[in-house]
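re: that chain from earlier
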Amino acid sequence: MNSTQKLTPAPYHKSTGAARVRPFARTLPLVRLSAVLVLLAATQSFAAPNSIQTFPAGNGAWALTSDGANIWVVDNDFFNGMVTKLRATDGAILGSFSVDSGPQGVTFDGANIWVSNRYSNTVTKLRASDGTNLATVRVGHGPIGMIFDGENIWAGNWSDGTLTKIRASDNQVLGTFHCNVLPIDLAFDGTNILVLNEEGDTVTKVLASDGTIQATFRISDTGGDLHGITYDGTNIWIGDSNNNRVIVLSDSDGTILGRPAAGTTPWGLTNDGLRIWVSELLSNNVSRLGIRHGALQRLYPVGNEPRGIIFDGTSVWVGNGLDKTVTKISPGP
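^ sequence. v structure.
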């Protein structure tokens, strides 16, 4: 993939464009022409609807997950760790639930919400239906990134450079595995856990069945500040915060396929199957990139310091850390 590729507009031909419009416009009464323009504008608006809504959400809005009907937002609070549950249809707050200190990561296993508590070195399991605290599991030091592989929960222990694997059904710790330096975010490709190492300039590919390292993909010229990872079914996308771009790697062999620009300080990434969505920490925007070439398609203004970002199957949600809000983007084509 060549990140410098640009789409070239089709050439404009007078014989098929303006030459036909001018005589048509001269023969129309003004009122009819106005009606045509209004109709065209309405058609354009209908063809590309974009709804942006912002809702209050707890006390920090650091990371998010969806249970299919609701959005769960974690607050990175040292003293009073909380998770807020919002109804996805209208953003109504359905409850707030206590966890341990410094929650920074969250995932969903189909029935329960799992929250990584960075400052207490634990993971909390909440029942999604009512927020009941079902378990607290001790993991490594400084857990942040979380992912569910279909059977097990994985927590990235940032301070240890390890992963902890927890069986979701009974909360049993199945093992702790070395991955690299400062694992900050996790994704799953159907077979492997993909680990983004914040200052190691690497992505580590760990076999989910037994925790063995399958590959380590080294990324040059990043400045050692990587945030956000998503898997699109074929390739891995990560945020290169220092260089205001994202990096696209082949999941099969780690070949770098492109380095498209992505606003100011890309932090969180998600995808909807057709597009890549990037939260920009310092520009207070979310950028939408084409999944094929990484070209910027649209910018969406959101709140202050957007970090965590997810796609719930219909809309994109982003947590605005300084505003204590979440923004819901319901995109058009």
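The chain is about 10% helix and 50% strand.
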